[in-house]
Amino acid sequence: MSNQSSIKNQFPIFQKHPDLVYLDSPATTLKPQSVIDSLLSYYTDYTANVHRGIYKSAERSTKEYEETREVVARFIHAKDSKEVVFTKGTTEALNLLVYAWGRKYIQKDDEIAITVMEHHSNFVPWQQLAFELGADLKVIDITDDGLLNIYNSKGEIDLSAIVTSKTKLLSLTYVSNMLGTINPIKQIIDCAKKINPQIVIVVDGAQAVSHFEINVQELGCDFFVFSGHKLMGPTGTGVLWGKYQLLQNMYPFHFGGEMIQDVSLDHTTFKDAPNKFEAGTPHIAGIIALKSAINFVQEVGFNHIQHYEQQLTLLAKNELERNFGSEIIIYGPKDIRDRAGLLSFSFGSYHSHDIAQILDEDDVCVRAGHHCTMPLHKRLNVVASTRASFYIYNTEKDVEKLVNGLEKVRKVLKIK
Amino acid sequence: MSIYQEIILDHYQYPHNHGHLTEPNYKTKVNNPLCGDEIEMEVNISNNQVEQISFFGHGCAISQASASILTDFVKGKSVSELQNLQKDSIMNLLGIELSPNRLKCALISLEALHKLLKECK
Question: What number is the ipTM of this complex?
Fold first, then answer.
């Protein structure tokens, strides 16, 4: 399924809005028909709660739900599907780690390391935990090119300024949602674990999973989190993967139904992971449809996805620079191979909200603002930027409409 | 209808009452860190009446144009009259419709005005 128009045809939103130019996939991707069908089928054919009913539809919903766990495990090359915990998204997965792992293992004067390019969801929870416990928060800076500032003069990764024997945790993103930077995660993990073999490493994969293959065992991380809705799945779905012993040793997160083994007046025991972290009725339809999303991604294939979005991003970068020259500043790595399919930029002295609004008049959807990365914007010394992304349903025509839209911005606002 | 109507663009490109007063009675500053809009506002009030007003700041076209339009409107008005100024009056002055996301851009100058009026009570 690598023919472009056949891929785009799988997204029914374009039948309703044929002129839509959707350049905001890092916020959430569009959904293919198979995912929508899967949601619908649960609600029209076999609605039932999971893990409890002794009747046919309940058995089917449980089976479909648990199948997604298997599919996710294979998708990220986990050792076992019981290492896969369903959450409502990356944000919840990271907060789960703060409450269930962080509060158990981090103590006063311990160190927590993150980077300045983190999304607020991988920045604020650790920052607040550090404040609460009196731990030290260490923040890895970036270079002016938007790469992590972790290289020594020989060009090798050197974390000795950040990771010490007191660093309990390093949590960092695989791909920056603003700069597009793809971080050399495996090398970073190797280097950090060499300095401190006890360190626990969390990888925020929210912006990575839709672009290239993930192998958590090869990466050597301890936890890996991502959202289903950035992978063409439904909103309200996400995954926390963790090494099983770590999951087993953690506190529970939410208390309630389905996560308990036995409850008495004077004590309660909990189920094993992953059920211990899945209290209450989950987003059953969504988790089931996540399986269809992963199947869809795999059918399109990461080779095609990577090649296609890189080509389109390069075209967009060249076109923006050719048409607007020094009027446009594109943030992040210069080398297209170091970035995923997105471009954040400043355009003249026009405010990103005005840019986005004028582009919207011609159905071009871009993101405007700080993209939930205020520390990064402060580091770059900009208040807000405009972000355009390119994914499998975008075309060269979309790039043209973006360029035309920016020309219109200049015409309408014409600041002297 | 585009929100970038001629009146908005005129005020954005050639803002009225833009700059600083030589000796303001009161001044204030309001910002929205989420989008970077910032408005400094200065007034001279005597006998309960706005005699001079100016603003200075940066941000999107809507925030800057609405500050220009609002400062035009308040000149010569009494403090008690201005204290009742609400969102709807601003929208009438601008003559456009805004989505909830852009409303805060239009209202930042009203926020600055109300903050000033509170100080001079």
Answer: 0.89
